[in-house]
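B., you asked whether I could sanity-check this one before it goes into the benchmark set. Here's the sequence:
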Amino acid sequence: MKFSRKIDFTMTSTEVLIVDDHRVVVEGVRSSLKQYPEYDIVGDAPDGIQAIHLTKSLGPDVIIMDAAMPLLNERETMIQIRQLDPNIRIIIFTACSDKEFMVSLLKMGVSAYVLKEDPVEDLIQALKAVKEGRTYFSRTVPAALMGHMEAMEADGDDEDAFDTLSRREREVFCFLADGKTVKETAAQLGISPKTVESHKYNIMEKLQAHTLTSLTKMAIKRNLIQL
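And here's what the prediction gave me:
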């Protein structure tokens, strides 16, 4: 089932889904939000697959999600959630401060990135920001972005080529680079194998890649897939 709606953040209550496999984190977030009646926690999921099921059934406005997902990794989880409803805001709430990992998720369009080591007020600020249509990043994120840009400066041509990929081409890129077949990629994205083949051709042409192994190396370099 696919649905899309325009979220009305002017409503008194913003529905929140928590996705984390650590109960102590889930209960901590629940406890912290009790004093904020404008946020209604409608459910929680311990893994990416359950997150997708609950997104379908509950239709939350905001998802607070860990960046280390069991069963289905965070990138595939985000892709499928976006397919269900592109208007859902995703707040990454994680212990991972690796700069390249941060950048890879930011490029996927997360609305906020908060570290678990930060004060709980940072998570509240992130919720307020996304409710107002803004983004919010932990104080360490701008430094990570700057470091990433400096690190990639010597490889600017390759980065520029990657930036020419459309959103759908990036989705296909991630699946193919992660070892998925054309048929598997088509099933995951809900498109035809012929369309995937077309995207595959365009991707390899834009990136000047001649084999799927080359795509995998590029994805590993950008931390778009996990080994």
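One thing to flag: The domain at 14-146 is CATH 3.40.50.2300 (Rossmann fold). Otherwise nothing jumped out at me.
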